[in-house]
């Protein structure tokens, strides 16, 4: 989710209340415009349902936030932000997405859900050959491509190696490397027409030619296997060092040895992994299916059999890894996956099937009056006469007229026959009419559109009033930094070496050798007992109280620390080479923090101005009553 969508989700939900409401229901006014109790209550309850218990706010606290929200919204509409072209374009784009569920036939959707679930039980390994066909190819070019794919199929069927033919004829660029082999995939991984061909082709057989948006294909199914589902793993990754080709391999082997000796995986991941994001969570990664990771990583992850199994070190393009199996997620029952499958179908081209059924129902429910004479002129392709009647009404849908000129423009450049063009055009107009009037027929849709509209308006207004100003007004930003420089201070830091050991006696030995000035290589040569690794070192500059420091360690003096037992069979020694004292941050270093704080100040000042511009009056009697009810 991008920043804009995230912030829109976090904005208060603005909802209009349908029905008669008395003045007694007015909770507050902004410049004499009423905001009703029901609207606020709906928003209050909705937000309380989606936030953690410790973050829940009282009615009074929510009211302050909601008043501020309404003040900003009032200014956004007064400044006519809702008339800006870019705003209208984005709002319409969101509307098109929101409409999708209303354009599907429930029976057909259910059939597609069943099909998708059944296919999800299998993974298919297939190879293909593609002969490209442009979307607007002429009939002659389309026929030429079809003849070519037929010839290619005959070569394969007659015994020529599929891989060789793919490399020679396929217009899929990857065929030169993989011989047309796409590896294993499952439902939703390919375009729907390709998926259909693959699932309906027997293993070791070659399909008849079929067409997708890319052109004509043939597919050979190499294997079908039960779906492996998804796995949840943790990993430790060591990036390769450009100046030391053996560094990454050596260190991952040391870490692996520590794991085999019983050191906690999560502890080692946090201490050593170069994947900083997962390291904070003990190396844990979100669950994934076999084809969602690079093959070299996925193959190892799925090869692990039992929970807590750990792989041997292996290499990918990202570095060296070891992987620990946390949990296997086999394919579950249909009901537990229904919501996920419906959402995927709605975003997939297969949803067009359900859409076609909806259009037919709409055509039967709407009053459609056609001008039969104009229709016949178009079907007979009488361009000369049609061009004389461009302003005539071709048909009406519930009284709303469509002119001949619209059909003529729609038909330009289309290669299909006139009847197909006419029928597809009238279906399109029926769909357009339905979509244009959806707010009038679907209350939930109308609510949601208003929510998004207000959120998008506030995003644009905040951009101009707060965010952009804080980033671009360098003079004001520098001035804010100067006035609040005591807030921006670097913590005390240490240039340190951390030694992690599995045995207390070895940790004591390491402590003594660090204190005597021995090099790390010298210490490892003495302490480690091939193949057993007793010590791993980590070097760097860490802030005081950094997570990598032992819990009881205090960055107070240069030298070698005591031995700290962090986990069972994990002992840590810290050698502090240098202490960097706390010091004021330079503006360049603090800029990100300053921008954030300056934005908060700008918004506070802005709210003060808005309250002066748009007087707010709260119905205190009603508020008191609501607070009492909320306590009960």
UniProtKB/TrEMBL annotation:
It holds the Pfam family Rotamase_3. Keywords: Isomerase, Rotamase. Transmembrane segments: none annotated. Residues 121-223, 228-327 form the PpiC domain. Coiled coil: none annotated. SUPFAM superfamilies: FKBP-like (SSF54534). PANTHER family: PEPTIDYL-PROLYL CIS-TRANS ISOMERASE HP_0175-RELATED, PEPTIDYLPROLYL ISOMERASE. This is Peptidylprolyl isomerase.
């Amino acid at each position: 989710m991008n920043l804009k969508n995230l912030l829109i989700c976090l904005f208060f939900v603005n909802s209009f209340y349908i029905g008669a409401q008395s003045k007694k229901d007015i909770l507050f006014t902004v410049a004499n415009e009423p905001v009703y109790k029901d609207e606020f209550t709906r928003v209050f309850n909705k937000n309380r349902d989606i936030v953690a218990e410790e973050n829940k706010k009282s009615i009074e606290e929510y009211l302050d936030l909601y008043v501020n929200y309404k003040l900003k919204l009032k200014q956004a509409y007064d400044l006519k932000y809702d008339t800006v072209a870019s705003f209208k374009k984005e709002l319409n784009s969101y509307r098109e997405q929101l409409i999708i569920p209303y354009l599907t036939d429930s029976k057909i959707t259910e059939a597609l859900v069943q099909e998708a679930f059944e296919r999800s039980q299998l993974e298919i390994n297939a190879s293909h050959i593609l002969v490209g066909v442009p979307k607007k190819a002429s009939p002659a070019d389309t026929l030429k491509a079809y003849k070519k794919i037929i010839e290619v199929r005959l070569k394969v069927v007659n015994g020529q190696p599929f891989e060789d033919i793919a490399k020679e004829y396929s217009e899929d660029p990857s065929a030169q490397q993989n011989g047309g082999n796409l590896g294993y995939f499952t439902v939703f991984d390919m375009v729907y027409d390709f998926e259909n061909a693959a699932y309906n082709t027997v293993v070791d057989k070659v399909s008849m030619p079929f067409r997708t948006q890319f052109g004509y294909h043939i597919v050979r199914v190499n294997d079908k296997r039960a779906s492996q589902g998804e796995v949840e793993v943790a990993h430790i990754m060591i990036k390769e060092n450009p100046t030391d080709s053996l560094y990454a391999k050596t260190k991952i082997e040391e870490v692996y040895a520590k794991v085999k000796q019983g050191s906690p995986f999560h502890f080692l991941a946090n201490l050593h992994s170069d994947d900083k994001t997962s390291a904070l969570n003990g190396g844990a990664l979100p669950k994934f299916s076999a084809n969602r990771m690079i093959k070299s990583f996925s193959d190892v992850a799925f090869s692990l059999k039992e929970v807590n199994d750990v792989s041997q070190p292996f290499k990918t393009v990202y570095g060296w890894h070891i992987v620990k199996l946390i949990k296997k997620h086999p394919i579950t029952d249909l009901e537990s996956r229904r919501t996920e499958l419906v959402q995927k179908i709605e975003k997939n081209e297969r949803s067009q099937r359900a859409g076609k059924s909806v259009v037919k129902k709409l055509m039967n429910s709407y009053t459609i009056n056609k001008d039969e004479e104009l229709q016949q002129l178009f079907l007979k392709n009488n361009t000369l006469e049609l061009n004389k009647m461009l302003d005539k009404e071709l048909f009406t849908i519930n009284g709303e007229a469509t002119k001949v000129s619209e059909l003529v423009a729609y038909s330009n450049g289309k290669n299909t026959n006139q009847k197909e063009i006419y029928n597809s055009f009238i279906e399109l107009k029926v769909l357009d009419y339905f979509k244009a009037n959806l707010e009038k027929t679907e209350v939930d849709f109308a609510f949601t559109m208003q929510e998004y509209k207000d959120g998008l308006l506030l995003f644009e207004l905040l951009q101009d009033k707060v965010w952009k100003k804080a980033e671009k007004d360098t003079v004001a930003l520098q001035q804010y930094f100067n006035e609040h420089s005591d807030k921006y201070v670097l913590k005390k830091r240490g240039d340190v070496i951390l030694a992690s050991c599995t045995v207390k006696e070895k940790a004591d030995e390491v402590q003594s050798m660090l204190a005597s000035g021995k090099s790390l290589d010298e210490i490892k040569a003495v302490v480690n007992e091939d193949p057993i690794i007793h010590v791993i070192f980590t070097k760097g500059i860490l802030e005081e109280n950094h997570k990598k420091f032992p819990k009881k360690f205090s960055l107070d003096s240069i030298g070698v620390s005591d031995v700290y037992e962090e986990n069972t069979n994990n002992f840590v020694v810290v050698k502090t080479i240098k202490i960097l004292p706390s010091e004021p941050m330079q503006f360049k270093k603090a800029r990100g923090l300053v921008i954030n704080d300056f934005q908060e100040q700008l918004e506070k000042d802005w709210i003060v101005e808005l309250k002066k511009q748009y007087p707010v009056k709260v119905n205190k009697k009603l508020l008191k009553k609501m607070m009492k009810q909320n306590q009960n």
